[in-house]
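Design a sequence for this backbone.
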């Protein structure tokens, strides 16, 4: 059984996972806009995709932190 003081809180996990989440969001946003050209939507530049990844990476990192915390809790039990 683990001590509650040694558990990583969700915010620390989210902070650790933020660079990966922001990068994944930027790549997916860029690819989604490329596929959107089929429907007449404009393509998104790589710089705008990175900016969108930085902004939308925050909720993605938070969701990843919650998921990682639940997996760690499941592994401990």
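Sequence:
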């Amino acid at each position: 059984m683990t001590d509650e003081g040694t558990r990583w809180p969700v915010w620390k996990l989210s902070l650790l996972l933020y660079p990966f989440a922001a990068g994944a969001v930027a790549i997916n946003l860029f690819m989604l806009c490329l596929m959107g050209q089929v429907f007449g939507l404009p393509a998104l530049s790589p710089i705008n995709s990175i900016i969108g990844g930085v902004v939308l990476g925050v909720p993605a990192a938070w969701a990843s932190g919650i998921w990682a915390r639940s997996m760690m809790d499941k592994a401990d039990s």
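The chain has one domain: 10-76.
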